[in-house]
Write a structure and sequence with these properties.
The complex is a heterodimer of chains A (477) and B (197). Chain A is of the alpha/beta class. Chain A folds into two domains: 272 residues, 2-Layer Sandwich (Aconitase, domain 3), CATH 3.30.499; 134 residues, Aconitase, domain 3. In chain A, 31% of the residues lie in helices and 16% in strands. In chain A, helix 2 packs across helix 5, helix 6 runs parallel beside helix 8 and helix 13 packs parallel to helix 16. In chain B, 32% of the residues lie in helices and 16% in strands. Chain B contains eight helices and eight strands. In chain B, strands 1-6-7-8 form a four-stranded antiparallel beta sheet, with helices on one face. In chain B, strands 2-3-4-5 form a four-stranded parallel beta sheet, with helices on both faces. In chain B, strand 7 and strand 8 form a beta hairpin. The longest helix of chain B is centred in the middle third of the chain and has 13 residues. Chain B is globular, with a radius of gyration of 19 Å. Classes of the chains: A alpha/beta (477), B alpha/beta (197). Chains A and B meet through helix 2, helix 3, helix 5, helix 10 and helix 11 of A and helix 4, helix 7 and helix 8 of B.
Chain lengths: 477, 197
Amino acid sequence: MGRTLAEKVWDDHVVRRAEGEPDLLFIDLHLLHEVTSPQAFDGLRQNGRRVRRLDLTIATEDHNTPTLDIDKPIADPVSRAQLETLRKNCAEFGVRLHPLGDVEQGVVHVVGPQLGLTQPGTTVVCGDSHTSTHGAFGALAFGIGTSQVEHVLATQTLPMARPRTMAITVDGELPDGVSAKDLILAIIARIGTGGGQGYVLEYRGSAIENLSMEARMTICNMSIEAGARAGMIAPDQTTFDYLRGRDHAPEGEDWDAAVAYWKTLRTDDDAVFDAEVFIDAAELSPFVTWGTNPGQGAPLSASVPDPASYEDASERFAAEKALEYMGLTAGQALRDIKVDTVFVGSCTNGRIEDLRSAASVLEGRKVTDGVRMLVVPGSVRVALQAVEEGLDKVFKEAGAEWRHAGCSMCLGMNPDQLAPGERSASTSNRNFEGRQGKGGRTHLVSPQVAAATAVLGHLASPADLTDVSATPTPAGV
Amino acid sequence: MEAFTTHTGRAVPLRRSNVDTDQIIPAHWLKKVTRDGFEDGLFEAWRKNDDFVLNRPERQGATVLVAGPDFGTGSSREHAVWALQNYGFKAVISSRFADIFRGNSLKNGLLTVVLPQETVDRLWELTEADPDVDVTVDLEQRQVRAADVTADFELDENARWRLLNGLDDISLTLQNEADIAAYEASRPTFKPRTIEV
């Protein structure tokens, strides 16, 4: 019987397989950041262990880093101490680090791909659940806890139980104005936050094949929000074109050998998935969340659901709690929800293509009074590219704040937070209670919806902007 | 890791589904660089409400958390497990756990037990009616017992053996050093490297 993409990559990394034991998998790339690594390095020290493969390990600073005044000492002493701990640990053990201020610094899941380190058919881990992002390249990539971080540092392997596989086939064409973010939010609403539990998801079908690498990363990034172990997309010419010429992409004969191998990384025709989901791309429209988990979402054109409409008691209770926390009433049109803050950024939507699409909506328009908009590039490289294209000017002229790279308001570990009761439209990945700041209320949206929302002050898509002039009327005319 | 054989204690019924790790331990607590001292951050936002089940006098000293489905979703932060343990919990019962949280818990000796939702419902009713009822989580027998409730649970033999003996995963893996070295020697040259060594 044929094998799925996930099974092929898995099999190619089995170091040891024994009856009654989890497989021991080799890890090709280990990404580190400041939040989930300090206790792992402590563990190595306590046991007199070293980092086994420094050449497969790389660290960056992202979760705590400020997005303003980065040339000054970090104001929060606890954040500063955590970053200093990472610097000390990397220096002591010899790990390559891109600290704040370095041109390669940025959100760990933006940095790996742009350096060309994330490659098809590799195993990638990081002490961060959004490691699933790297699956966009046909890599098997999963988030791990700190004990596992220590395990990989010490052994470059992980014992893991073989996951099941689920195909999510998206055929057809995405309508205009519908992005990868809308698609993944719709998928999570369909299968639920636990729907992917125990599975590696493989996104396939013509709509997926037509996506850029950035869009594929947005999709795979949020696999974890459906509870999945990982998300993957088979590598193709789009993947190879993205990788060619990047710092750590193979060269010469190695490139040819790599591409020959990468081309084998497709699910065989006779392979059988443990579960299958089919989605018609043509039926999708801009999608936003109304609740406090990423599965509580609906098309922008819909209304806040009535908790009484849920048959399942625990879902009904969860919806009631969510509406209470979010300050919403059943039946209220989603388009009528007013926001205070718009956040564009994160490992989900902080790449150059995301900034381009937000800027294209904002060009010649203004962020409405009373709304603050933060644009936080996913990495320094993304920021530099955006500046080269003049996107920073578009954002600034529209009245948005153009910030330095990092995780920022996605999880509010740095000063970028919502105040209690404040409401955001956010291109990030989690609308959990208090995620963006204590008492903050989050609606997850695409970059286009974020930009249109900033202009109108309520949840909106670019299609709603028809009566708002894109060209400012000159004074006196 | 601390070994886990069997544990008996009072329970906290937590009637909530989709308890994500941001609720278990909010992000600002993640700046700490140790594995201890997280107990005050556990369910921090909810504990501000005096009526929250963990705040009630009859739940003080309870060691078994009985939670709703999809417990531990979201962030991979192992701090969520440390916070539960620092607070005093020895076991968590739910009908479904998020994968990463489950893995983290078993690596730290916090036993996460999967039981059908009907059984979780019965444990909720039982422990809400009588906060003093003892709940036993028996890993040797793979069984949960409380008053008239007796429920078997599954846990794969390998994970059970490591928990019962409090074994350290890294030491176990390093016994296979020869296999790791052999695999490393066979890796293709086109695989990426972060630095030249």
